[in-house]
């Protein structure tokens, strides 16, 4: 397995972070990895009663939500791919 660096935007957080994720990670694991350095430090979970979800970043935030069990490799993420981590 190999690592891919993604640019992560967490909902309601003012920072964009570079996060290394393994290409075997599911989107649930990607969301957790992206939230880990921010939640409880610089921001809070957008809604703790709901799971974090992942989508590709677009100008109008209308990209489809990726399935929670989809892997990084199957999604075709490339280095420095921009993603949004959010609650629906």
* CATH architectural name: Roll
Low-confidence stretches: none
Please provide the ordered H/E string of secondary-structure elements. EEHEHE
How many domains is the backbone divided into? 1
Strand order of the largest sheet: 2-1-4-3
Estimated radius of gyration: 12 Å
Give me the secondary-structure category. Answer: alpha+beta
As a percent range, the share of strand residues is 25-35%
The coarse overall form would be globular
By DSSP, the count of extended strands is: 4
CATH topology (level 3) name: Ubiquitin-like (UB roll)
Chain-averaged pLDDT: 92
What composes the largest sheet?
Answer: 4 strands, mixed
Short précis:
The chain is α+β, with helices and mostly antiparallel strands and 88 residues long. It has 2 helices and 4 strands. It has one domain: TmoB-like (Ubiquitin-like (UB roll), Roll), CATH 3.10.20.270.
How does the SSE layout of this entry go?
Elements: E1 3-10, E2 16-22, H1 27-35, E3 53-56, H2 72-75, E4 81-86
Parallel strand pairs: 1-4
Antiparallel strand pairs: 1-2, 3-4
Describe this structure in words.
There is one protein chain. This protein is an alpha+beta fold and 88 residues long. It has one domain (3-86): Ubiquitin-like (UB roll). The chain has two helices and four strands; from the N terminus they run ββαβαβ. It has helices spanning 27-35, 72-75; strands at 3-10, 16-22, 53-56, 81-86. It has a four-stranded mixed beta sheet with strand order 2-1-4-3, with helices on one face. β1 and β2 form a beta hairpin. The model has no long low-confidence stretch (mean pLDDT 92).
């Amino acid at each position: 397995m190999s690592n891919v660096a993604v640019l992560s935007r967490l909902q309601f957080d003012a920072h964009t972070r570079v996060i290394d994720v393994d290409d075997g990670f599911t989107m649930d694991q990607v969301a957790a990895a992206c939230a880990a350095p921010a939640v409880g430090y610089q921001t809070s979970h957008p809604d703790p009663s709901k799971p974090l979800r992942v989508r590709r970043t677009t100008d109008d935030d209308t990209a489809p939500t990726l399935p929670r069990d989809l892997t990084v490799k199957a999604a075709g993420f490339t280095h420095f791919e921009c993603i949004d981590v959010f609650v629906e």
